[in-house]
Design goal:
Blueprint lengths: L25 H4 L9 H13 L6 E4 L4 H13 L4 E6 L6 H14 L2 E5 L3 H15 L3 H19 L3 E3 L18 H9 L6 H8 L6 H9 L5 E3 L10 H12 L18 H12 L4 H10 L5 H11 L8 H8 L3 H7 L13 H19 L1
Helix pairs in contact: 3-4, 3-10, 5-7, 5-15, 12-13
């Protein structure tokens, strides 16, 4: 019987977890509700962007999911920004996500573009990444990040508004799946993807966190802002109600607090994560919701039990076919150890992460 926290629902095999004599985990004991940076600071960013009098004040990556739709709502209906919405077509868009995107564009009247990378190259990268590392989400993350920067540079858009929220803190594994150099190593092992093809996927082959930072400082790239870190954010349920009313957004009928309904491969990738690590990505989000008082522990356990059923998703065969993965391949993926490729992280990214950590430590001492 796996021990879980008496306050949240994190299990004893969760990375970095410790329990006290009352079975309360260290994440609960050290938890502090995020204090928003302040709406006034956010508005300053918006006012500065408006003063530049560009075609667009901000770029909003729009997936049709809850958070990105809410960001588009805030940007257009609350703060009256001129927005270009953009969608990265990864080939896994669900029908409900497409409907939500189309509805959001109609409701806001913003310009919108799809970016679809070379399908053959993208599928080959997915295949190699999944076969060797057990992950494909990093492929999307890197593709979205780099194409977002490219669009902001081409259109001279000063801001990029992202939908990450404090609710998702600690919801990722210890593997840095968004490191381009790591992904290059993973996908180069078989020799099926040429350097030219991988560079084409990256758009900016030599980009890392350090030169991205400087390109942002000089204005080549739009500045990335997470508005949900600046504001008193409504609860997850309240956000859903707002965008249903204002944006015509719809949720899956069988969904409890869904976050990634935009991708029809997500239930499968979460299932693989469950097999590899013993828990799904949502377990951290549910635990944060418990700490914030947005959900009871009993309800969170109920939702987690559905995630934890070890029943593979109904569309597993469809995902395996899309990734060109066999059942034997899948069984091998289940055994891939955590952190297999962590030694191959970009040196520049490691330096940037260290400097950022030291800066945060110094700020905390002030």
């Amino acid at each position: 019987m796996i021990k879980i926290c008496s306050k949240c629902i994190l299990p004893e095999d969760f990375t970095g977890i410790e329990f006290d004599s009352h079975n309360e985990c260290n994440f609960c004991k050290t938890f502090h509700k995020h204090i928003p940076f302040g709406e006034d600071r956010l508005i300053k960013y918006f006012d500065n962007a408006k003063r530049k009098k560009r075609t667009y004040d901000a770029l909003v990556p729009l997936s049709g999911g809850k958070d990105s739709t809410y960001i588009l709502y805030l940007a257009t209906k609350v703060y009256k920004l001129n927005v270009l919405a953009y969608t990265y077509d990864n080939g896994f868009f669900s029908k409900i996500a497409i409907n939500n995107i189309e509805s959001a564009i109609r409701k806001t009247g913003v310009d919108h573009i799809f970016y679809k990378p070379n399908e053959r190259i993208l599928r080959n990268i997915y295949h190699e990444a999944f076969l060797n590392s057990g992950e494909i989400c990093g492929v999307c993350g890197i593709g979205i990040m780099n194409s977002t920067q490219k669009i902001s540079a081409d259109w001279h858009i000063p801001l990029i508004l992202l939908g990450h929220s404090p609710l998702e803190d600690n919801s990722f594994t210890s593997e840095n799946i968004y490191d381009s150099h790591r992904l290059r190593v993973i996908t180069s092992e078989s020799g099926n993807i040429s350097k030219k093809e991988f560079d084409q996927f990256l758009i900016y082959p030599k980009m890392n966190y350090i030169n991205t930072y400087f390109h942002t400082l000089t204005g080549k790239f739009g500045k990335k802002i997470n508005p949900l870190y600046f504001l008193e954010v409504p609860t997850d349920i309240e956000i859903g109600e707002i965008i249903k009313h204002e944006m015509g957004w719809t949720d899956k009928s069988d969904s409890d607090f869904s976050k990634h309904l935009d991708c029809w491969a997500e239930p499968f990738t979460n299932y693989v994560r469950e097999k590899r690590f013993g828990h799904s990505r949502r377990i951290s989000q549910l635990s944060n919701m418990i700490r914030l008082g947005e959900i009871t522990r009993e309800k969170a356990l109920e939702i987690h039990e559905k995630d934890h059923s070890n029943t593979e998703p109904l569309n597993t065969e469809q995902v395996l076919s899309a990734l060109n993965i066999t059942r034997d391949d899948l069984n091998k993926v289940f055994t891939i150890p955590s952190g297999k490729y962590n030694a191959y992280l970009s040196r520049a990214n490691k330096i940037f992460a260290w400097v950022k950590t030291q800066s945060e430590i110094l700020k905390g001492k002030k």
